[in-house]
Amino acid sequence: VHPDGSISWVMGQAVPEKDDAGRVVGYVGTITDITERKRAEEEKQRRAAILEAQINSTIDGILIVDEKGNKIVQNRRCVEMWKIPQHIVDNCDDKQQVEFVKNRIKDPEKFVEKIAYLYAHPNEISRDELEFKDGAILDRYSAPVIGKDGTDFGRIWVFRDITERKRAEAVLREAQALYNSLVEQMPAG
């Protein structure tokens, strides 16, 4: 801490200096100013905290898987939507999670085929709907995660529950069909 209250971070290293008999007679050391590195680490932690807050505050389920098939980020909403047990959430291998969640889908083979296809075609973007055995419907969006320098960091999966919207659309279609039927049955003008 400097007299003006500012702080500098330093790293000290010392190596013992020995005489011919092997006795320590002193130390030779260096002190390196690591203030900028510490500030960069603090900024990185701040940004990570903000990103985590954003990811966990959305109504969408978010999962990011790296190019090796390991989960990097998974928000709470994703876990809730898919009803994933904690022991699977804690396992970083996404294959175990896919095996678990496919059993909730009406067409698990198609679900797994689409995942395999997208992993085999890392530059493709996809959007489709997933119908669950219990009647729930999720909008699924997937895209590659590419850095500014072109580095492939994996794939993001975003899930949105559209069950209520789909039910409302079905009710509206039924009402429209009934209306059309009534209009057709009315005598001419």
Defining traits:
single chain, 189 residues, alpha+beta, five-stranded antiparallel beta sheet, two-stranded antiparallel ribbon, 7 strands, 41% helix
What does this structure look like?
- The chain has six helices and seven strands.
- The chain is an alpha+beta fold.
- The strands form two sheets. It has a five-stranded antiparallel sheet with strand order 4-3-7-6-5, sandwiched between helices. A two-stranded antiparallel sheet has the order 1-2.
- The radius of gyration is 29 Å and the shape is elongated.
- It starts with 9 loop residues before the first strand and ends with a helix.
**Helix/strand/pairing class, anyone?**
alpha+beta
Q: Outline, from the CA principal axes?
A: elongated
Which spans of ≥5 residues are poorly predicted at pLDDT below 50? none
Major β-sheet annotation = 5 strands, antiparallel
- Strand residue percentage: 25-35%
Radius of gyration: 29 Å
String of helices and strands = EEHEEHHHHEEEH
Q: Write down how many β-strands occur, each being a DSSP E stretch of 2 or more residues.
A: 7
Widest β-sheet, arrangement of strands: 4-3-7-6-5
Query: Number of helical runs?
Result: 6
Average pLDDT level: 91
Oligomeric state as shown: single chain
Helix content: 40-55%
Distance, first to last CA: 92 Å
